[in-house]
Design goal:
- The chain is mainly alpha-helical.
- It has a domain of 41 residues.
- It is 72% helix and 0% strand.
- The chain starts with a helix and ends with a helix.
Amino acid sequence: MKASQAEGDKYGYIKSAKATGSRLDLNDLLKRMEDQKKDDKKINILIISGVFVLAVVFLLILSL
């Protein structure tokens, strides 16, 4: 593990600007935004696939 990651969380982010007293880093904000988009995309895919599976099961039950 890198020394800079030892102080951060699991994503390698350094403590927030309020806690360290330093300026905000735009690269950190962009990285967090990309990570959030990836997480949102995964969640949306899980929700859509769950709805699809429920619809298929419902249709199978109706066709019996």
